[in-house]
Design goal:
The complex is a heterodimer.
Chain A (H helix, E strand, L loop, with lengths): L2 E5 L2 E3 L5 E8 L8 E6 L5 E7 L6 E3 L7 E6 L4 E6 L8 E8 L6 E4 L3 E5 L2
Parallel strand pairs in A: 2-11
Antiparallel strand pairs in A: 1-3, 3-8, 4-5, 4-9, 5-6, 7-8, 9-10, 9-11
Chain B lengths: L8 E4 L5 E6 L11 E5 L6 E4 L13 E6 L2 E6 L8 E9 L4 E4 L3 E5 L1
Parallel strand pairs in B: 1-9
Antiparallel strand pairs in B: 2-6, 3-4, 3-7, 5-6, 7-8, 7-9
Classes of the chains: A mainly beta, B mainly beta.
Chain lengths: 119, 110
């Protein structure tokens, strides 16, 4: 079945780095744009980044530009989020999501992985 | 503070109709499609409406979306207890060169 499984979350000190992964299965990964969306504790959804199906185009939210980078390895059916210079405000559940090419909606979501930035 | 504004809460009794608004600007809702997501407690979001008013297969026709100018709305008719959730609007924003979500609306079934 179509599935996205995030991993790599954990507790990290401010200023350190973390890389999240999102393993895709059950669909042709290299034909879909992919997104990261996060949700801080008790807060709403915040879009983080998107990457085109082939990785040639990337867009990041202003709040993470220069610190957090989206990437993908289509040979491994895996999406990544490299998070550097982490701050307390990056504490959140991070979801990866698939974008439907014909309508732009995020139709498949992972279960999320939790990142806690704390000293 | 999101660039798209939703009321923080909405409520209704079973069977009632509830409407959630999403107010944006010409750089997002005024130009691009609006999407709606439902997030049940403790779960990942689920796509409810795409392209302003289209429902993915499996979404009941009790849910409907509309858009006019720089605003959009989600209507839930025949409200049921299982509709108690957070609802988010979303769109691309040209000024930000990114997707944006509204702040979310918590729907309570009284």
């Amino acid at each position: 079945q179509v599935q996205l499984v995030e991993s790599g979350g954990g507790v990290v000190q401010p200023g350190r780095s973390l890389r999240l992964s999102c393993a895709a299965s059950g669909f042709t990964f290299n034909t879909y744009p992919m997104h990261w969306v996060r949700q801080a504790p008790g807060k709403g959804l915040e879009w983080v980044a998107v990457i085109s199906y082939d990785g040639s185009e990337k867009y990041h939210a202003d709040s993470v530009k220069g610190r957090i980078t989206i990437s993908r390895d289509n040979s491994k059916n895996t999406l990544y989020l490299q998070m550097n210079s982490l701050r307390a405000e990056d504490t959140a559940v991070y979801y990866c999501a698939r974008e439907m090419t014909d309508h732009g909606g995020l139709d498949v979501w992972g279960q999320g992985t939790t990142v806690t930035v704390s000293s | 503070q999101s660039v798209m504004t939703q009321p923080p809460s909405a409520s209704g009794t079973p069977g009632q109709r509830v409407t959630i608004s999403c107010s944006g600007s010409s750089s997002n809702i005024g130009t691009f499609y609006v999407y709606w997501y439902q997030q049940l407690p403790g779960t990942a979001p689920k796509l409810l409406i795409y392209k302003n008013n289209k429902r993915p297969s499996g979404v009941p026709d009790r849910f409907s979306g509309s858009k006019s100018g720089t605003s959009a709305s989600l209507a839930i008719s025949g409200l049921r207890s299982e509709d108690e959730a957070d609802y988010y609007c979303a769109a691309w924003d040209d000024s930000l060169s990114g997707r944006v979500f509204g702040g979310g609306t918590k729907v309570t079934v009284l």
